[in-house]
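Q: For a teaching handout, I want to show students what a protein-ligand complex looks like in token form. Below are the inputs, and the small molecule is 6-O-phosphono-beta-D-fructofuranose. Please produce the holo structure.
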Amino acid sequence: MANMIVAAVNANPSIVLGLATGGTPTATYANIVEDFRSGKVHFKNVTSFNLDEYIGLSGTHPQSFRHFMQSELFDHIDIDPNNTFVPEGGASDPDAHAVQYEAQIAAAGGIDLQLLGIGHNGHIAFNEPGSSPSTRTRVVELTPSTIEKNARFFASVDEVPKTAITMGIGTILEAKQILLLATGKDKAEAVRRSLKDAASEDVPASWLEQHPDVTFVLDEAAASELSA
Ligand SMILES: O=P(O)(O)OC[C@H]1O[C@](O)(CO)[C@@H](O)[C@@H]1O
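A: Here is the structure, written as tokens, with 6-O-phosphono-beta-D-fructofuranose included.
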């Protein structure tokens, strides 16, 4: 995954990247940092937009996605901080901020390459089951199962925010190219349903079937339900 991203940046040094957080992409970011340190890639002219952020967590909160991006990637490469966009969890008017975020993506010319993870329930970004392909960046409620899964990053489940700002499915589908990364048995059912079921709101990642240029990058465990 890191090699694909590095190759894309080298092919277009002014690329607009869409970036993801969560447990899955940490190794990808570590490999990108290593490639930067060995001079294989530069990010001076790159712009990035992250998928989502918890509402109520400021960018300095250790579990905020802004903090994750700084510590896993941005602080270690030469990207211009002014060109790194993450929805602001501390925005005073999150609905207005979501509209502004869409405008910022449009002003940057849209996303060239979008990196995605996948939730155990098939969510992409924080588009939970029930999300339609026309959804845009907006405020959403997290499902109890997502809150429970993400509690592993917090001191207790009660500390996990219940709402978030997320790019919509429609926003994601407008990216020119999409790479979805999934690892582990826990993701096998979501991966299978995304690729084999008819596209529907039940499994938000299944809407990716409607995109012309999507690559799923899977380890064997995440791919284990595909051969049946
Ligand atoms: O990679 P994880 O931690 O399994 O999370 C799955 C997905 O859910 C999210 O946490 C929700 O945005 C994504 O960051 C991630 O792609």
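A: Two things your students might notice: The chain has a mean pLDDT of 98. The beta strands are 16-19, 47-50, 52-54, 84-85, 113-116, 138-141, 163-166, 177-182, 214-218.
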